[in-house]
Amino acid sequence: MTGxxxxxxxxxxxxxxxxxxxxxxxxxxxxxxxxxANALAIAERQMTMQDAVDxxxxxxxxxxxxxxxxxxxHDVSEALRLLADRVRAGAFDHDRDFTGQxxxxxxxxxxxxxxxxxxxx
Length: 121
Description:
The chain is mainly alpha-helical and 121 residues long. The protein has four helices and no strands.
């Protein structure tokens, strides 16, 4: 193994775009270059962080659904649907722990897709 990972390649491409290419391009190219660099940065964060966020979400959904008597053995999409149904029905309206846990999951996703607005950044 060479130690060259997809994450490293993306980071190098992003750095090259923002530091080398952007510095030498006309103003007309500035927006597309920054957009490409942002897309690469998001892809890198997804590659390094998304599995942990997904595992955190799955574990938390199991806890929430078990607490609502929904049992276990649901696939992720079914569990999300069941959880959404419970939220719409008001099952968690006065559950401050649920609200805090949901916010933590949303902030973990935000750290991937828009870290400027994430308290984790």
